[in-house]
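Ticket #4471: complex job returned nothing on first submit. Input attached below:
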Amino acid sequence: MTAELVFYTSPMSRGRIVRWMLEEVGAPYRTEVLEFPAMKTARYLAINPMGKVPAITHGGTVVTETAAICAYLADAFPQAGLAPPPGDAARGAYYRWLFFAAGPVEAAITNKSFGFEVPAGREIMAGFGSFAAVADALENAVSAGDYVAGHRFTAADVYVGAQIGWGMQFNAIEKRPAFERYVARVSERPAAVRAREIDDALIAAQPSAG
Ligand SMILES: N[C@@H](CCC(=O)N[C@@H](CS)C(=O)NCC(=O)O)C(=O)O
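Support reply: We reran it on our side without changes. The output follows.
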């Protein structure tokens, strides 16, 4: 019997990234939509003690953290070809940019959005250094080829593409031509389009919508 895959999300959240990944994977999954108070129930806190979405359960395995979920799904469904296998030279770049986007990029964007400044001269203490350094490194990553980990699209492109796309949409990342080209390339994939349609339909169906 195959393990049931359950996706806990809210259609306006980072869950949109996991939806995209799930659509890339193509395995059947069941969605549980949790709106904000429902994320703090004892039942959901047992899945994610942070009380945040997204999360997945796959049989008895619980995974939280969007980037970790993307990496887990790529490994759990290798037939989808969304991760360079261990031993493949592209595995290094795959890990590198996935973790870079979940750590330094996320921190740089959050700090910038809230107006938190790294005190001058203290960049060596901040894991992301400075926003400008993060943006330049990211531009390098998406300019070296079509995808961030070698010649093939991977789960790292789902996560990096979504982070840059989201950042540009909310003016947290400047619209550099290299970012726009990369985001256009990855976000026109059929799975990305399908994922947006599913979540946009869920938003439209919400009682407060319209
Ligand atoms: N580090 C987490 C962040 C998840 C997160 O912040 N989720 C937000 C929505 S995008 C949330 O659930 N907020 C509700 C709350 O904190 O009550 C990840 O990458 O998955």
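The radius of gyration is 17 Å. Closing as resolved unless it happens again.
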